[in-house]
Write a structure and sequence with these properties.
The chain is of the alpha/beta class. It has a domain of 109 residues: Macrophage Migration Inhibitory Factor, CATH 3.30.429. It has a 4-stranded mixed beta sheet, covered by helices on one side. The longest helix is centred in the first third of the chain and has 19 residues. The protein starts with a strand and ends in a 6-residue tail after the last helix.
Length: 158
């Protein structure tokens, strides 16, 4: 259930934005193993005066293609995060975004921090100790299609 906020300089076409968001989602699917329809993304464009992304003294050159990806998610392992960073570089290269223009920040929270509706916390719907998000016994509302996809998605290692 990661929630992604993607910030970028203005100027991308609708098709470019779709390609960017689809690429980010493929990276999330691969690295975090979430169900296909577990997709919550907000894309926001900014003028140069309202968006500043510098290199923090690391010697990283940025261009106008830079994207800042903020992710709120349940706790992930260091390996999952590292895999995500690598997958983002792979996926976004096809969008014309180089590795020096991908900035990611992950903020972790728990199931109780989420409500997807009906006035209930996410943890009240499912067994929050289950790490397999597509597990139908722990998450009975996961569709068969999403469960099958999560199990068969290349690169998930399941």
């Amino acid at each position: 259930m990661p929630f992604l906020r993607v910030d970028a300089y203005e100027g991308r076409s609708k098709e470019q934005v779709k390609e960017l968001l689809d690429g980010i989602h493929r990276a999330i699917l691969s690295a975090f193993g979430v169900p296909l329809r577990d997709r919550y993304q907000v894309y926001q464009e900014h003028s140069e005066s309202n968006f500043i992304v510098q290199d923090t003294g690391l010697g990283i050159d940025r261009t106008k293609n830079v994207v800042f990806i903020g992710i709120a998610s349940r706790q992930r392992t260091e390996q999952q995060k590292t895999t995500l960073y690598t997958k983002l570089v792979e996926e976004l290269k096809a969008c014309g975004i180089e590795q020096n223009d991908i900035v990611v920040s992950i903020v972790e929270n728990s199931d109780a921090d989420w409500s997807f509706g009906n006035g209930r916390a996410s943890s009240s719907r499912a067994n929050s100790s289950c790490v397999l998000l597509s597990c139908r016994s722990c998450r009975p509302n996961v569709s068969k299609e999403d469960q099958d996809h999560a199990v068969t998605m290349p690169g998930l290692g399941r």
